[in-house]
């Protein structure tokens, strides 16, 4: 098969869910015959797109800042640079593959150069609203197709012109292999609750600390997507109790899932609606019950009361009660742990790769089997 160029764009490469999924998608498309040209900026702590094999990486000068004004200026500046660079970089026959709605400068360049544009949409909670509406407007007028990580994301984004396809996220093959080695539910004491998330208040990090204060017999582990300095600042501000330990970003999270009995996502539904929930899927693959918000695409992963609980973070008594129930009712815990592991298989890598192949018109059955054989040989 002749190699075709796939020009991939992701704004900020870090350890969050969207670059993780983007890397998996790019790996699958590489195996189908695409050569990848990757445009991205990398956070100081690194990210999932770092050291991407067999891809030409083109660095972007973009950095997040605590100052909203500086962040806005950086964001607008990188859009101009993206537009100009891709205007001269793109050539006929290239596929332009854009991760998240944010890199709109790339989409505009693709439109001008008449290259097929594909968006992979992960988010709906973009602020301010004017920015969100502007990004949707650009996507609606530049994209030929849009891939959505959940039905909720598709409905909320409400793009009218691009063809839409639901592509549920999956986990890296190496993670599935490691998860299968956690073959039994965690029976080690103390009962441990784990949360992995960004260092943002709307992720429920303050509520987790408050919950730890009310449940001193439960150990709480909080892994923040930040560096040690960010952890130190958070600890100085919140003063977590002795049963709550805070860690910086981790390249290997399996040891944390191994220690955990239950994994939480406490995002505020009025400030940040989860469109999928990668850490929840990771937990389920490891056979861990989960607690999720009551709204968003993350709700498509579980049934309330089966693989875990759906609880609004604003209902602290319900959260405390559910954690207490899981920590004291061994039969309930074992049932939910097994159900979580079974449900995770629905979001396996084979389904993801087949969905990506279909999205890019690679529906040939022989090709799909070839992709599966490549992955199996790597394992």
TrEMBL record:
Annotated signal peptide: none
Source domain of life: Bacteria
One Pfam family hit: Glycos_transf_1
Keywords: Transferase
GO molecular function (one): glycosyltransferase activity
Domain Glycosyl transferase family: 191-343
Protein name, per record: Glycosyltransferase
